[in-house]
Structure formats: structure tokens, C-alpha cells
Specification:
By secondary structure, the protein is an alpha+beta fold. 31% of the residues lie in helices and 24% in strands. Helix 3 packs antiparallel against helix 4 and helix 4 packs antiparallel against helix 5. The protein starts with 7 loop residues before the first strand and ends with a helix.
Length: 402
Amino acid sequence: MNSVAATCNIIVITDPTGKDPNGAAAGSMSFAENMFQSTFLMSKEHHFAVLSGGTGSSDTRLDSIVDAVSNLENNASAASAASLAGGYDGARLVVGGPYIGASVGGSFNAYVITVSDADNSITVTPYTSGVATLEPGQKGAIIHLRNTAGNPLYGTADGVRKETAMNIGKMIRDGYPATTILSEAMGEVARDSGEKYGGGGVNLVSGLSSSDMFTPEDMNETGFPMDDPYSKTCDNCGWGVGYPTADNYDKCPMCNGDLKVVYAYEALGNAITVSEDAVSVSVYGSGKAGVASTTKEIVEASVNKYGYDASAIAGSINKGINNGLLMGVDHVEPKDINVKEDSKAVGVYYNSLPGDRSSPPWDLPVDENVLNILGSIQTVVGIILILLVIFRSRLLKSFQNR
């Protein structure tokens, strides 16, 4: 596996009290391969993130991360934890959370953004060495950005870093939640600097994560470009489907409504933002590509239309299977749907289909075993016919000789 370092690290804090469920967020990207979300860590218990990077080796970064996490779990300040990067050659640490502020240390090119509660004034300050800090209790953000060698937009990082920092400050001043600001900033960085492969983002207050939505499917590959179309969704019923399958749909198959294109950075914001109609969907029993994301879209559409009803959700999923939206899993029953309405969570338990089958067996009035037997008979008869065709001349000659 080729080593990777995140070249874009962002932490945004819009509510230092931690009362806003969307008041603190963090994320990472890079032009490089292998931008799995494990390139940064989130503690749901302690509400902090550790984002790594730099020019040092992967072992160096790992050692610095372990030290930083250990310090933060022992109530160290963000500045103290970030300063540990200075002890590792080429390493960078960006750490922070709603209660501890944020800090960057080690090898970095960053801006610290602060927004005053008194007069909403915005301050954007560049830093390139030592430790730069957004103090606890302060609304603001930190953005680090460099270009990766080989990026066609190499050389743009300095200008994009400054422009994005200013836009982050304006969005904080205007009252946007941290999760939305993070997604918009990542979209801007992806478009303008080319450092665009996920990675992903986390909600540091509510503990939500984009998980593997944008990470590579295989080792030594790039993740999903954050400035590319990610899915199509229906504003009418909430149904949606990801690309490339989305190319096959111009209208919603559930309600025939118009579909809207959602870009990856927008999908990131939707995934980590808590809202009244947000649904946390967990999928079990299948690791096939696309099953989890498509199930999430179907469940969200069903909940928006019918509420947290296990029978309705199962019906919507089975309709998706019958329509070919979901492949490789068998039909579900209400008992396979675990609904927790108070926490807006739905668990779906699948049985994967045997072999390489993509769809369940047809519901026919003839027993499946009978069809299997008939199929076997047909196969045998077919083989006999083929043998007769191939060896007909030899058989005829043998018959004539007799």
C-alpha cells in the first residue's frame, strides 16, 4: 500500500459551547491515492478530531497521532497535542473540538480564522511554523492546504487557501452551521486546487461521520472526487440513487418527480448534519458495493413518506430489489428492520444471495425444486443432443457396420 498524507485539513467551530448539534466539524482530502478516512480520527466520547499529514513517513505520522490521542484523552489542550508534531520529522497534526478549540503544529501552511462575538469582525491570519491555535471558546476555523506533486493544478494552494479561509470566515459570521461550512469549503478546495479525493468529514458534536462514502474501493486508488456529481435525489419523496446508476434515471421511480444532482461535497454535508428529517441507516449482512448507500437513500425516502414503519420500509426496500436498484441481496421482512424512532436510526439486516446471483428467485406458482430438476433435465438433454451432433457420423458408420 502506497503511503498517503492528507494535504487539506479543516476544522470549523461555530458553537464553542457544544449545544448546537452541528456546531463543530472536521475533514480531510488529498490529490493522492489511499485517502481512507483512517487518515484522521474522531473520538465520539471526547468530541475531538486528530487530522494528520505532512512530509514525513507513514510510521512517523502514526507515532505522532498515537501521542496526540493519548494526550487529548488525558485532558491536554489542543495546542499541547498539536505541538507534539514538532518532535517528528515532517509530521503535521491538526487537532480540535468544540470544547478545546483547535490547533495545528509541525509542518504546515495554514490560516487561523476567528469571528468576534462582539461585532462579527473576521480575522484571517497566516501561519507556517510552530503552533497556531484557535483558542477554546472562540468561533472560528483552521484550514491547512498544500498541493500534491503531480496535481494538474499544482501551484494554486496558496491562493486557494487564503480565499477559502476568507469564505469560511464569512459563513461563520453569517450563521451557517459548521457541518455546512466544512462541506462548502471542501467543495471550493476541490474545484480550485485539485486536492479533491476523499477522505471525508465528521461532526464533532453529534459523532456523525461520512464513513466510507468517498474513500477508495481498492488499495492504491484515489477516492471519490469531492467536486463530482455523487447522486440524484427527489425533493418530492426523498428517494435518491448514486452514480453511475444515477445516469439511468431522469425521473424518480417512486413518485415520478424531478431529480436533483447532488455533488459529493454536498452529500458530505448532508451525511454529517443533524436535521429533523435526517435518518441514520446501518446495513448488515452484505458488503457488496452500492448496497449500503442505495439502502440509505431508499430508507430515507420511505421514512419521509411513511414514517418509521418497519413494514413500509421493508416494502420500499423490496420494491427497490424488484426494480433492480438493489442487487445481490434477498427480499427483507419487517422483522429484518430494526427501527429506533427516538434516535432516528434504522438498521437493515440482509441475507446475501448465494453464488453470483444478483436478484432473488421469481415468485412463481411452480415449486423452485421442480424448476431446478427441469433445468437439470434440460441441461442433460442438451448435452446429449450436442454429443449426437458432434459424433453423428461416427455413430452412423458404426450402425451401418452392424
